[in-house]
Amino acid sequence: MTLSLASTAEEIVAHLRTLASEESRAGMARFGIATERALGIPNALLNPIARQVKRDHARALELWATGIREARILAIGTDEPAKVTRARLDAIAAEFDSWEIVDHAAHLICEAKLAHEIIPAYAQDDREFVRRTAFSTIATAAVHLKKEPDETFIGWLNLVEAYSTDERNFVKKAVNWALRQVGKRSPALHRPALALSEKLAASSDKTARWTGKDAVRELSDPKTLERLNAKKR
Questions:
Q1: The whole model's pTM is what?
Q2: How far is CA 79 from each of CA 4, 62, 73, 226, rounded to the nearest angstrom?
Q3: What pLDDT digit, counting tens, does each position of 61-101 carry?
Q4: What is the CA radius of gyration of the chain?
Q5: Of 49, 53, 211, 212, which is most buried with the most CB atoms under 10 A?
Q6: How many helices (H) and strands (E) does the chain have?
């Protein structure tokens, strides 16, 4: 089946089913990806499909509603950021069941210019994957929101510190990821991020200590420092 901008959600799902792979599905489970509703199609095959069908908000809603992992990834990747609302994000966040879906959604949040609103709200949310979304979005914003001022990220470092003791696996890894990405964003942000990393590394809390030590290791790495020094020139 040849997909195009005119392809319906039903046609896209039918095409996805032809690409299903039980072997790939089993492999995904080993990486902690929720596979209960997965067809087993790697992102390397989904990305070209997203480019073929392009963006369509109404169709994205239909794809998400199928509940199928691959359809949901395409829903996030082919939605129209200008039409994505906070209410819509809250609705899909309530159904997050995998770190992978969360990390795809972080890109959409940044594209929809809702990071400032979502990050503090979701950080306070006690649901594991919703809280992960806050920190995954910080990490994503550090790389992709090129025009965002350093002051924004310094403020978000306060959230990193506040939630550094959350021991749940998918939260603590995202908190750590956010800290490292902010520290690598610019020379100006490296200093406060490294200082926070060192503070957490000395914490009596084992989760905060793990986050801090791991971040110190990367932010002190000669290759990281070399890249940051190159940005000064």
A1: 0.95
A2: 15, 11, 10, 38
A3: 999 999 999 999 999 999 999 999 999 999 999 999 999 99
A4: 19
A5: 211
A6: 14, 0
